[in-house]
Amino acid sequence: MKLRTLTLFCLLLAAASCGIKSPYYQKQEGIPKAAWKSSFQPEFSINITDTVSPYAFYFLVRHDEAYPNANLWIRLNVKGPGDSTFRHMSRAEIGLADAEGKWLGRGMGGIWEHKVALAPAMAPQFKKPGVYHIRIEQIMREDPLPSVLNVGLNIERRAE
């Protein structure tokens, strides 16, 4: 009986772990005083060794209940290996609430987390190996943007 229970437990654990996908890269940066100034552009450094695999990019944001908008406009600025300057990517609108004002992310205790997929045109292309620097710029009219606690990136290798 104990052997069956142990075997069943191991099988369930193995099945559950197959569904867990760990990101290739994930990092978040805190926003000073929960007021995101346009001049504050969190920078993330990603070491890319595999330039063949496709990647999926996600923007991460955490805000509180007092965030005054249903969306957030951002732009990624990217500097690739060997580049001396950042280049501007397309801007993207990040939807945070539906038409009725209900937050779309996961909430707990008045804090809301969103993981939003970026369109392929918005995501940088990793054409050569090395360290890529990505800055996230908020391009909203309101500056500073209140009630934003953290922003970040999640990058996952996609199955081909």
UniProtKB/TrEMBL annotation:
<dbReference type="InterPro" id="IPR020018">
    <property type="entry name" value="Motility-assoc_lipoprot_GldH"/>
</dbReference>
<feature type="signal peptide">
    <location>
        <begin position="1"/>
        <end position="20"/>
    </location>
</feature>
<keyword id="KW-0449">Lipoprotein</keyword>
<keyword id="KW-0732">Signal</keyword>
<dbReference type="Pfam" id="PF14109">
    <property type="entry name" value="GldH_lipo"/>
</dbReference>
<protein>
    <submittedName>
        <fullName>Gliding motility-associated lipoprotein GldH</fullName>
    </submittedName>
</protein>
